[in-house]
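User: For my dataset I need records formatted as: sequence, then structure tokens, nothing else. Please produce one.
Assistant:
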Amino acid sequence: METLVKRNGFVPLVTSAFMPTVNSFFDDFAGRDLMDWTDRSFSTMGSNLPSVNLKETDKKINIELAAPGLKKEDFKVEIENNMISISSEKEEEKEETRKKDNYYRKEFNYQAFRRSFSLPDYADENNINANYKDGILHVEIAKKEGAKKKIAKTIAIK
């Protein structure tokens, strides 16, 4: 029996159910990051955007953005034209040398993202708080006094 398998974004390979092809073995092996220094970028997770949770209560709108490994100084939160944008740019360079073993390694890493969300009219752009704790950026946007959230209306289908 043969199955169609997609590996690492490459052209699908035809493999036997009982014996993988040599190409699939090398794709699996080469796809692993052998030089990983435990630095994970969003691109290694298959995406260049961090995950976001949005929650709305009667008094506020909460945004939780998962971005482990960053510092609060790495983030930029901006409001413009009823849009909130959360972005980050981080560049790193590491160098390792061992003269005794005639060993030298220098690597660099760059990661950046930008997430933008439309704010409703009842969001109070002058009352926003943000903090970064345990790898999650928390942004809390207060609602304007007296503003009511529009209630969803279900339309009957005839």
